Please model this.
Amino acid sequence: MADGRPRYDAGDLRRFTAEVLVRFDVPEDDARRAADALVHADLLGIDSHGVAHLPDHKSYVVGFRNGWVNPRPTVRVLRETPGTALLDGDGGMGVAVAPRAMELAMEKASAVGCGFVAVHNSRHFGAAAHYTLMAVERDMIGIAMTNAIGRHMAPTFGREPRLATNPLSVAAPTREEPPFMMDIATTVVAAGKLEI
Model:
């Protein structure tokens, strides 16, 4: 049964999303990365982390208008070993910075067997599954997680919110079946689901 919501072609939605971001001075490569992450979340059925965030989430249009998000971050490596790195996201959109981090982690994994890359100082990360499925495309196991801000959930037996959602995703290729993929909040529900 159709739910009555309008449907859009994913390619058109990617182009529209990237064009909106470019109008806020986001470089085309970052706009494309961000649009890919947001539309992919929608295609995965994770509407709470997709394009719906674009107009009113503080990490996108609202953040650009208020100066909370750097549209042109200079992402730099703060520390690095053959298998690890720490990146400074320079206040950029997480959905543009995190793909770079996953690409670097996969390069390291190809070279030394595993790659772990952490990012600090970036904004909303989107759906963690987007990044873990990037690894699956290269026949690798992907793990992605982020800390979240705010107090959305009460701890077990608690009465007041004290915990953020702190999402976690794992994806792995399989021989014949579709890849294994898990994307969860570490709380009962993701904050984005409550927003929707």
About this structure: The chain has a mean pLDDT of 92. The CA atoms of residues 148 and 166 lie 5 Å apart. Helices lie at 10-23, 28-43, 61-66, 94-112, 129-137, 191-195.
